[in-house]
Amino acid sequence: MLRYAFRLHRWGLVGFATIMVLSPYFQAGAFAQSAGTTAGQRAAFAHEMSALAVQLSYLLPAPYRVDTLAGYVQWRAWGTLSVVISVWAVAAAAAAVRGDEEKQLVDSWLAARVSRPRLVASRLTSFGAAALVAVVAASLATVLSAARSEPVSVAGVSGKALALWLLIVTLFALCSLVAQLTPSLRGAQAAGAGLVVVLYLCDIVARSQHSFDGLSWVSPFKWYDATDAMAPGGRLGVPGVGLSVATILAAGGLTALAFARRDLRGPLFSLPIQAATRDVPPFPALAWPVARLLYRQRWTLAVWTLITALVAVFMVTLAHGTVESLLSLPGMRAFLTHGSSDPYQGFIATFWFGTAELLIAGFAVHLVSGWATDDTEGILAAVLSTPRHRWAVIAERAGTAVVGITVVVAVGSLAAAITSASLGTSLDAAGVFRASWPLIPFALTFAAAGAVASTRWPRAAIGVLGVLAFASFMTADLPPLMNWPGWVADLSVFQLYGTPLLTGVFWNGLWAMLAIVAAGFGAATLLMQQREVGS
Fold first, then answer.
1. For residue 331, pLDDT beyond 70
2. What is the pLDDT of residue 277?
């Protein structure tokens, strides 16, 4: 049972372990290229990184000893891993709880007299084992890549690795618990994503507003950030480790109790069902292809729209308290104003739209997860038996992605503009529109790549898309540090989006994104025509 459960995580393990190995490797190389060798050069580099940390506080924790290779890798590489593994934890928990039930695997296990508590324990243990393999691989990559120029403490890396492993397992346990409340795989994914985003916001709000330090301790992300053992002079965050262990045990126990109380393929709590007195015809709009698929993914769309709106409100509200402290830092006024006279508007533009890229990309990943699930659970085979053209399936997915992404982008941008106006800082409507609509082709590039992956390798789609997204992010991030040619950064979709609110639409990048979208969905159409569904 345990071995089989571990095998179910193999594709996620391969994809996310690859990311966790490559990130420390590249960041160690970037430090060796950029930090210098003398104490003065290292001090100047650390000062530059401290200013950058303020700009990236929504993505990275506060830096510690970034004048050393160990401290820099801990900040830039291991700091972003907490965001990366969140996607894995949400997808794996939803698949373990609801995916296995929809595939009727749980029916078989229960018929073989495997107890429900044992099923919960085996899934938690198997994911913990998969996460441990990935974390050990990341630790080895860190030690070996650092050995080329500046060896790091194995004990320090082990301490940070322990904190990361506990974070992954904690998020999996919490997402498994909330998955008991929903009746479907998509509902479990949406609920898990919502929970993780809320917990993440509780952590990042304290990075710029220290008055929220107490609130941040409800978040497992804070428990992970509290450990800085990898850097010289750092230490293991014992309170965070203790809270993580306690949360895993509590969430695992509550999950077992909830699973014991509910029916298979049913939610923990449900409203009483009244007998139907007559047949109700379906809503006519559900006969439309795009509307039909969009309805099936309605919870994913609703939750991501709500998340995006809440984050927009949060980022804009945070501006007035944060800008005052930023303006005291050298060079930050020029960064925030970008030639204008309103630093608040510059903060909202830079920080909100930088965060929006990550949110919209996350929504595209969850759309792709739904497409892959349709294949592995036999839904796609049933749809094609109606009969329907295979090209129509890909066209419907593309149309659904366009509509869903447009809704999420529109709601997020409106929330940012309305909140800003209520606080006395009006954003330029034309500028907001100019920065918002390129987010649609930006997110569609991930959806197009995911369409190819979910058509060719449905079980590995999320892992493949995760690697591609991470590679794109790193391609935009590393060239300045590694002294690579400028055209390398142009290979990143993040670079192709540009900064339209501040510098206008990057038209060459826009055409490139549209070409990727067309090529991706076109390749998915050809693959769908050739492959055997369900294989």
1. no
2. 47
Choose the weakest-confidence range: 8-12, 194-198, 304-308, 436-440: 8-12
> pLDDT for 43-70, tens place per residue?
888 887 877 776 677 778 888 898 899 9
Number of CB atoms found within 10 A of residue 177's CB: 26
Residue 95 per-residue DSSP state: I
* 334: helix, strand or coil: helix
Q: What residues have CB less than 8 Å from 173, skipping those under 6 apart? A: 93, 124, 247, 248, 251, 252, 255
- pLDDT of 351 > 90? The answer is no
Residue 40: the pLDDT is 87
Specify burial of residue 279 (Cβ count, 10 A radius: 0-12, 13-18, 19+): exposed
Q: What's the pTM value of the predicted model, to 2 decimals?
A: 0.81
pLDDT at residue 272 greater than cutoff 60: no
CB-based contact 303:194 (threshold 8 Å): yes
Cβ pair 209, 157 in contact under 8 A: no
Structure tokens at 234: 């750092």
Q: CA-CA distance, 75 to 362, in Å (whole number)? A: 22
Instruction: Report the C-alpha gap between 392 and 399 in whole angstroms.
Output: 10
- Higher-confidence position of 14 and 324: 14
Q: Which two tokens stand for residue 119?
A: 């099923």
Q: Nearest-CA neighbor of 20 among 138, 159, 161? A: 138
Joined together, the tokens standing for residue 138 give 């990341």
Among candidates 382, 497, 390, 498, which has minimal Cα distance to 446? 497
Of the candidates 308, 287, 519, which has an alpha carbon nearest to the alpha carbon of residue 409?
308
Going by pLDDT thresholds of 50, 70 and 90, the confidence category of residue 126 is very high
304 vs 300: CA distance, rounded Å = 6
Contact 65, 233 (CB under 8 A): yes
Find out whether 408 and 367 touch, Cβ atoms under 8 Å.
no
Distance CA 50, CA 61 (A): 11
Which residues have a Cβ under 8 Å from the Cβ of 138 and sit 6 or more positions away?
A: 17, 20, 21, 23, 24, 78, 81, 161, 164
Band the pLDDT of 515: cuts 50, 70, 90: very high
C-alpha Rg value of the chain to the nearest Å = 23
Alpha carbons 74 and 69: distance in angstroms, whole number: 8
Q: Domain residues of the chain, as ranges? A: 1-26+84-268, 287-535
Residue 99, classified by CB atoms within 10 Å of its CB into exposed (0-12), middle (13-18) or buried (19+), is buried
- pLDDT band with cut points at 50, 70 and 90 for residue 227: very high
Half-sphere exposure of 2 (CA within 13 A, CB side): 9
Count the neighbouring beta carbons within 10 Å of the beta carbon of residue 62.
Answer: 15
Q: CA 393 → CA 186, 380, 447, 448, 452, distances in Å?
A: 19, 9, 14, 13, 13
Phi, psi for residue 130 in degrees, rounded to 5: -65, -45
Report CA 506 to chain centroid distance, whole Å. 25
Q: CA 355, CA 201: separation in Å to the nearest integer?
A: 12
- Between 181 and 277, where is the model more confident? 181
